[in-house]
Design a protein that fits this description.
heterodimer; A: 500 residues; alpha+beta; 5-stranded mixed β-sheet; two-stranded antiparallel ribbon; 22 helices; 7 strands; B: mainly alpha; 5 helices
Chain lengths: 500, 64
């Protein structure tokens, strides 16, 4: 099979390359035309030839964006997505190409090459700064815009490492190199955000998906995400923390330190879990308020969501946690460090909120829909068969439903178990919206006597603070630093102390 | 500073009433100046709230 047996094919190939004399539009037309021709059955052997040509270009770091598109098109249109070992199966051709070109290494090396070339171009641009997103829409190197080049490469790499019927994965070195060009030395802030989302947990229909292979997770987590030189804790973004959080849950699940359930909710099995120190380090230094909020949530969850095997230690864990928070206030008072005091209070307040079953997720994202699609839900208290009708929005969560049930029946939130469809609705499902849960009643509740006498009534972390003269004196000492000015604010809108 | 003070006050308001302070107010065994310490205006306000609470629900509190 000779390429010259086909009219125009060579011409179209030459037109789409970066060094052709045509503009991007014409090059794009040539790429589309070539793709259409290669789709034809008569071109079966030519397709293979062009796959090789594209990978040679990838190796040479030339015209890569176009070649990636062509490879994608050929693989998806001329080969079969099958597990069978067939000459026209995607897995078979990928195996052959991988042997010849070391696909993952070639893509990563090309990303580095492209990064270096663009960096050199940007160094001479007067209007360059990492936030200047307009530059991403310019063809800085080659015929295509920077953002097309950037996205195409990541999408292509993802296709290769997630293809189920021929296994390729990122090695430690690949992860390190990708992290360097996209996070440590990212050319644009947007690249950083995009890459962090790319490498983080993705929700799927089944288990969440990760682009980092399980065997590389310990390296990625311990050497990169737990390394302050590689992940800037002080300026940690929401996406940076989400990435840490994703692998924090995964590595602890893999090492059986966490039990991870639906929606990535977890229960702590082993208190000596991975990333504990780093989580506290982030808490101390992070300056991004939104990120700090997420850090605080995760720290609190790690102290509240405890597995049954730790039930005997629960009270001690909560006492220690409360003492630690008050320790921040004490240290902040001694060192006149408002930041430390603020963080200590934030942590303690969030701990109380979550201990009382208040959902942070509820208050922010869902509450705006509280009046939309109201439905009447029937709840039956067993064994007396006492029914109550509760009004709730279809978009509110099971946690809100639980709270409304508690109010309607005059029970504590931990004093009953909520059942639906014959199963207990666990507390870690509370963030699911009613519409996501896919069931609107009737719900059944059973009183649980044991819970009423343990966590919810006899112990509350608030009591540890309020019953300690040292802690109360500390709070008044902190307040006394502002003994003159702001009292009027409180006189106008104070509320009386609560009682347990 | 104002924000920090507000946070701490909010925290204090979320806590159950400190039983020692409450007892001192109810028993009135110390001097008035010692119980209602005007040097710390927040402590004074806290104590006054306990008094207010007592005043509004005197019968209930006496029964305790």
């Amino acid at each position: 099979m000779k390429e010259s047996d086909f009219y125009c094919v060579t011409l179209l190939w030459e037109l789409l390359l970066d060094d052709s004399n045509v503009n991007t539009h014409i090059a794009e037309l040539a790429l589309n035309a070539l793709s259409s021709i290669l789709k034809e059955r008569a071109c079966q052997k030519l397709k293979r030839l062009y796959l090789y040509k594209c990978f040679e270009k990838l190796k040479q770091h030339e015209s890569v964006s176009q070649c990636i598109n062509l490879v994608h098109f050929i693989l998806n249109n001329a080969y079969f997505n099958t597990q069978l070992d067939h000459e026209n199966a995607i897995g078979t051709i990928l195996k052959e190409l991988d042997k010849q070109f070391s696909i993952v290494e070639s893509i990563v090396a090309d990303m580095e090459s492209y990064h270096g070339k663009v960096k050199a171009v940007l160094s001479s641009q007067k209007d360059y700064n990492k936030a200047n997103i307009a530059l991403r829409d310019k063809p800085l190197v080659g015929k295509y815009n920077y953002h097309i080049n950037f996205n195409n490469r990541l999408v292509f790499l993802e296709f290769m490492i997630t293809y189920p019927y021929y296994v390729m994965s990122l090695s430690e070195k690949h992860i390190e190199r990708l992290w360097h060009i996209n996070v440590v030395d990212a050319l644009f802030d947007f690249d950083n955000v995009f890459f962090l989302k790319w490498i983080s947990r993705r929700p799927g229909t089944g288990e969440p998906m990760f682009v980092v292979d399980k065997k590389e997770v310990p390296y990625f987590f311990n050497e990169i995400l737990c390394n302050k030189n590689k992940l800037d804790y002080q300026h940690l973004t929401h996406d940076g923390f989400f990435c840490f959080d994703s692998y924090f849950r995964l590595i602890n699940q893999l090492d059986e330190k966490f039990k991870v359930g639906k929606s990535s909710n977890f229960k702590v099995v082993d208190l000596d879990f991975h990333g504990k120190k780093q989580l506290w380090d982030m808490f101390m230094v992070c300056e991004n308020r939104e990120t700090l909020d997420s850090i605080v949530n995760l720290i609190v969850e790690c102290h509240l969501k405890l597995d049954e095997s730790l039930s005997e230690k629960k009270t001690q864990i909560w006492e220690d946690f409360t003492s630690k928070c008050m320790g921040f206030l004490k240290e902040g008072n001694e060192k006149k460090n408002d930041k430390l005091i603020d963080r200590g209070v934030l942590l303690l307040m969030r701990f109380f909120d979550k201990f009382e079953g208040k959902s942070d997720h509820e208050s922010r994202a869902v509450e705006q829909y509280r009046y939309m699609h109201p439905i009447n839900v029937i709840v039956i208290l067993k064994p007396t068969n006492t029914p109550k009708t509760i009004q709730i929005s279809y978009f509110q969560t099971l946690g809100t439903l639980r709270k409304k049930i508690a109010e309607a029946f005059g029970l504590g939130i931990n004093e009953f178990k909520l059942h639906a469809k014959g199963n207990v609705i666990e507390r870690d499902e509370d963030e699911l919206q009613i519409n996501q849960y896919g069931y609107s009643g009737p719900f059944v509740i059973h009183r649980v006597q044991a819970a009423a006498t343990t966590e919810s009534t006899s112990f509350h972390p608030k009591s540890i603070v309020s019953s300690s003269p040292q802690y109360i004196d500390l709070l008044f000492s902190l307040l006394s630093s502002d003994n003159a000015g702001t009292i009027i604010i409180f006189i106008q809108k104070y509320s009386p102390p609560t009682s347990l | 500073m104002i924000e920090t003070v507000k946070l701490i006050w909010d925290l204090l308001m979320r806590l159950p009433t400190n039983i020692n302070i409450k007892r001192k107010i109810y028993q009135m065994e110390d001097s008035w100046d010692k119980i209602f310490d005007a040097k710390n205006i927040y402590r004074l306000l806290y104590c006054l709230q306990i008094v207010e609470d007592f005043a509004y629900d005197r019968e209930k509190e006496r029964g305790k």
